[in-house]
Input
Amino acid sequence: MLYIINENKDPFFNMAMEEYFLGLDIKEDVFMLWQNRPAVVVGRHQNTHAEINREFIKENNIQVVRRLSGGGAVYHDQGNVNFTFIKREVSRDKFDFSHFTGPVIKTLQHLGVAAEFTGRNDITIEGKKFSGNAQYFSRQGMLHHGTILFDSDLTVLVRALDVSKEKYVSRGVPSVRSRITNVSEHLPRPLAIEEFMALLVNAVNESSRGALRQYRPSKGDLQKISLMADNKYRTWEWNFGPAPPFNYKQVKRLPGGTVSIYLEIEEGIIRGCKIYGDFFASGDLDELASCFLDRPYEKAFINKWAGQLQVEEYLHNISASELASCFFESGECS
Output
């Protein structure tokens, strides 16, 4: 397994680096540890306009970048550690998070901290989240990446993200702050983030039976990554795109994630449809959304029509009936 040495703190460059090594025609798996300057990293299927505190991030020079994978928006700073695994041979229909979070949990256990994998994609300490994980599949393999709040500024985190919305039960920043934590708060002794990262590399090496092989990107690699960063990850089109026009919006929390539906409805007919959320997807969401265009906006019809669309092939762990319910009833799924 290649262990990519990456000391770059540019969030746009680092998103491009992940995609670059995922796309290489090589057989070796890949592991990376990296950090970003302050940034909000938005999930592939999210509406960026609805996820960020635009005024705050502008005032504080916080970058915004969209990643390849699904899941929710996260905040990065240099008190945050990010890890990436690229696996070449994997089943596209399986989102296996626990395997890749194992080295993180093992490292913390070694340090005397009881961490556990919980929910869809989180690692927690005493019920508080410090790591979120996401995955993306391509023809070249699967990319798994996760964040670790080691010593991040949690006050900035909750202000950078637009947290006062339906996916948080209490609809308030204090609730969010009470459910997240830094690893450093639970360590029995002070530990530099660099030492923690070195321990994590050792744990990954042990889990791969000593197969880690260091690789420092060549000049050619860096040039191609920089070009991808400029042409894709620094662009407004990739990171934001136009806010969807709509005259009807619904948001619902489901077991598979939060789903937001934006609709343009004219004389009872759906003329525009966009699907956003922090779910994980293995299909083209624009293709799924287009299936609802020019259809009657009528509950019985949408329920029946969604059942014919094989929704599960697009959205992980979200059924056709759950998706259909998002077209009409706001609030959380019971």
